[in-house]
Recover the amino acids of this structure.
């Protein structure tokens, strides 16, 4: 079942776009890699070291069940946000990046209210409007 915005806010403390993007990116990866939640997946998150970008990592943990405690999610340096998802069982990997249109939307946030509104809007957006996948498996 999908993580609700309420559950996400309860875990993370506030609602923001990066938190929601983490949830969506994790959901998409589980689907595309046919992973079971919690154990099948290894995640490397690049370029999300500081807040608010690092909020992405909490969203990813919520939706995938990969956690710091289990050691299957890791934070690394990078010039832009990039998330690598690896299915341990099938040895398959996908790489996810933000689309330029999404990056522009995130840049336009000025206030706390903008941030909450965008978070809510993103939650209802189709994955393919937000993320680029390598390999591109949207059409398969
Ligand atoms: Zn946050």
């Amino acid at each position: 079942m999908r993580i609700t915005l309420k559950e996400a806010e309860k875990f993370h403390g506030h609602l923001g776009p990066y938190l929601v993007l983490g949830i969506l990116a994790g959901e998409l990866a589980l689907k595309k890699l046919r992973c079971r939640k919690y154990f099948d997946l290894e995640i490397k998150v690049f370029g999300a070291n500081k807040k608010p970008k690092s909020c992405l990592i909490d969203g990813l943990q919520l939706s995938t069940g990969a956690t710091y405690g289990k050691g299957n999610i890791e934070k690394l340096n990078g010039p832009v946000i990039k998330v690598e998802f690896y299915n341990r069982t099938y040895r398959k990997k996908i790489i996810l990046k933000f689309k330029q249109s999404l990056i522009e939307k995130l840049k336009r946030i000025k206030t706390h209210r903008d941030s909450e509104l965008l978070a809510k809007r993103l939650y209802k957006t189709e994955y393919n409007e937000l993320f680029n996948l390598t390999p591109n498996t949207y059409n398969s």
Q: What stands out?
A: The mean pLDDT is 95. Helices lie at 5-12, 17-32, 55-64, 100-107, 112-123. Strands lie at 41-46, 73-76, 82-87, 92-98, 131-134. The chain has one domain: 5-125.
